[in-house]
Design a protein that fits this description.
single chain, 196 residues, alpha+beta, 4-stranded mixed beta sheet, globular
Length: 196
């Protein structure tokens, strides 16, 4: 596992490098990942706009900010994501804002399809669901905890919809985005903080 983490960190992006990549892909009509479909390209464009908005508007809860400011342990937060992932677009700007509060957290991002060895260690119900945040000890790279792919409330939106309709369709995705908009990142912040 340590070798896999080390290799992934060597292939990782800073948040700004990841945002630059997404913006370039959106502009060029491309996407990350192995499958270059019109759907994924469309999601990359949408997610670039979504992240641009959230980078400007997301606020860190006062209580969360105080805990982060007083943290004494050093972390690397390693996030597994892809440009086409709607949940990653909602969650990464929050994680970035949290990491910016303290020098004790270094944020790094890797692409799922280029880091399959890492992803296979952090499956959700047997699937490669993203985003996945790995909280690493900055000195040892030991995985202390992980979060994702969604906060509990967002998971419930999808589970309830799937139980009622049998599928996750475009309407379910719209309901999920409404949940994120209403929650304003608070659930994500508190759930991540509880893992530290």
């Amino acid at each position: 596992m340590n070798t896999t983490i080390k290799k992934s960190l060597q292939n990782s992006f800073s948040y700004q490098e990841y945002r630059n990549l997404i913006a370039k892909l959106a502009n060029d009509g491309a996407t990350t990942g192995e499958i270059q479909t019109e759907t994924n390209i469309g999601f990359t464009k949408l997610n670039d706009a979504r992240m641009h908005r959230l980078d400007k508007t997301i606020q860190i809860n006062e209580e969360v900010q105080k805990v982060l400011e007083n943290t004494t342990k050093s972390y690397i937060w390693l996030v597994i994501a892809e440009s086409w992932c709607g949940d990653a677009a909602q969650i990464l700007p929050i994680i970035n804002k949290m990491a910016q509060i303290t020098s004790k957290i270094e944020l790094r991002i890797v692409l799922r399809d280029q880091n399959d060895d890492l992803m296979l260690h952090f499956l959700t119900n047997g699937t490669k669901s993203i985003p996945k945040l790995l909280l690493l000890d900055a000195k040892t790279n030991e995985v202390l905890n992980n979060f994702g792919p969604r906060p509990i409330g967002a998971k419930e939106v999808i589970e309830n919809y799937k139980n009622k309709h049998g599928i996750v369709d475009e309407t379910a995705k719209i309901e999920l985005q409404k949940w994120y908009l209403t929650d304003k990142g608070i659930s994500t912040q508190k759930e991540i903080l509880a893992l530290m």
